[in-house]
Amino acid sequence: MELHGVGVGRGVAVGPVLTMPDPLPEPAEQQHGGDAAAERAKVDEAIAAAAADLTERAGRAEGAGREVIEAAIQMAQDPMLADDIAARIEAGTTGERAVFEAFRSFQEQLTALGGYMAERATDLGDVSQRIIAQLRGVPVPGVPDSPHPFILLARDLAPADTALLDLTKVLGLITRDGGPTSHTAILARAKSIPAIVGVGADAVVAEGTRVVLDAAAGLVTIDPSDELVADAERRIAERAAMADAPITDGALADGTTVPLLANLGSPAEAAGAVELGAEGVGLFRTEFLFLDSATAPSVEAQQEQYTELLKHFPKKKVVVRALDAGADKPLSFLNDAHEENPALGLRGLRALRAKEDILRDQLQALKNAQDATDADLWVMAPMVADADETAYFVELGKSLGLRTVGVMAEVPSLAVVADQVLEIADFVSIGTNDLTQYTLAADRMLGTVASYQDPWHPAVLRLVKLLGDAGAASGKSVGICGEAASDPQLAVVLVGLGATTLSMTPAALADVRAELATVTLEQARARAAAALAAGNAAGARAAAASA
Ligand code: PEP
Ligand code: MG
């Protein structure tokens, strides 16, 4: 039997499947019917059992993982929380609901404090779910704990789940929900975990069944034959050997240079990217630094982070994006209104314009970092619609002393007027994740429309061509910084369409470097032409492969 989904990266994995239980639904607002003492005793027992389970896990974990679990044990046994739970039960609330409400109230207090305390709020949610699972006698939600390596099947993973995955245990990832550019997919790619997303809401695999996960084919084979397992193991060994290939600058077979840059979300990732051969940074997602902040970061706090980043890239290009708040990455200090369709709302540059003080502070911090280092800093705005918005951002950036100022091409309208935009901007960087989402009107977070979220679609490629042509006519740089650049075959097509640089998660650099070296510019252009003429995404893929 097989499961089909969208592959993330090119990896292969073989192993038994373990399923991550879905989060528990919120306990109903019910009364316990009188016996408060009995209800309290049940809760005390559940807390003790959850703490014992966590203590056992802490004993097996190491380093940061152990510290996180030890902090969770303390939270589970916090006397203030115990008092709050007891008071709620005395007032008639059921044990489950009392645990839920007491933890939620504590979580809200921590979130309001911001920073480190707010980060701990997420962990509190996990502890509360563990206690409620004990009370209900159901499996504890979250990544299963196993002494053996396994392939994880989940509805979807929260970014925190993905970030904490134990890579010595999780060989691969299959999600029922989520598209190829959901943050689960982005983090999986960053951690080089072979993954397939969007296999469908009703996908089930019996616990412990062996599967072969082939990300390049978007295919999970359940109970594979011995031949298939042997073939997968050979491919795993080949990929491991390729990771040791020498690192060179990005170039086509005819010597045409294609600088290969890194997509980063924090200065801490810079050293790893340099090690993998990143020739600079093509996208620094500044909003990732401040997802937990309740208030706008100061110029000084930002300057410190940007300077630290730039110091890793002396004389190299570093493209920093202004805060892209909204939709799946809300920042409480920039997006405070409820929107029915946040991806189509006050996002990116629109949100920054509405709070120009915050934008000015960020650009000032970047200017200070530019002056403090010898990196070649480029600054760009997200979610820009046209030449007017481009002029606004470029003029503001230049007036504050930034040297190189450009825009992202994510909204299709910007690609349509690319010639006008490039008269004003110093450069354009194409965000293929959003460009695909908006061109095909398919929410990138939604598993049900994951099949539309395919940057191979000729409509997306034609917009890239408009931008590439405008770049060639103006002599300005048109880079790619969406996930599309990390697909080696598509990377070649994008270069054929006029992309001058490719930026991706550092883990993808080796595959893309190797593929680019196999084609000339003429061949890349031929593949691009074939893909543009196709009728759909699958057709474009096939046409490029046989061109
Ligand atoms: C994009 O949209 O392609 C992009 C690079 O930005 P993000 O994924 O952060 O929205
Ligand atoms: Mg984007």
List the helices and strands and how they pair.
Blueprint: E1 2-4, E2 6-8, E3 12-19, H1 36-60, H2 63-76, H3 79-90, H4 95-113, H5 115-136, E4 150-154, H6 159-163, E5 170-175, H7 183-190, E6 195-197, E7 210-214, E8 219-222, H8 226-242, E9 260-264, H9 270-275, E10 281-285, H10 299-311, E11 317-321, H11 349-354, H12 356-372, E12 376-381, H13 387-399, E13 404-409, H14 412-416, H15 418-424, E14 427-430, H16 432-439, H17 458-474, E15 477-480, H18 488-496, E16 501-504, H19 509-516, H20 521-532, H21 537-546
Parallel strand pairs: 3-4, 4-5, 5-6, 9-10, 9-16, 10-11, 11-12, 12-13, 13-14, 14-15, 15-16
Antiparallel strand pairs: 1-8, 2-6, 3-7, 7-8
Residues 382, 410, 431, 433-434 line the site of magnesium ion.
Task: Give a concise summary.
The protein has 547 residues and is of the alpha/beta class. The chain has helices at residues 36-60, 63-76, 79-90, 95-113, 115-136, 159-163, 183-190, 226-242, 270-275, 299-311, 349-354, 356-372, 387-399, 412-416, 418-424, 432-439, 458-474, 488-496, 509-516, 521-532, 537-546, and strands at residues 2-4, 6-8, 12-19, 150-154, 170-175, 195-197, 210-214, 219-222, 260-264, 281-285, 317-321, 376-381, 404-409, 427-430, 477-480, 501-504. The protein has three domains: 2-21 and 143-243, Glucose Oxidase, domain 1; 36-136, Enzyme I, Chain A, domain 2, CATH 1.10.274; 260-546, TIM Barrel (Alpha-Beta Barrel).
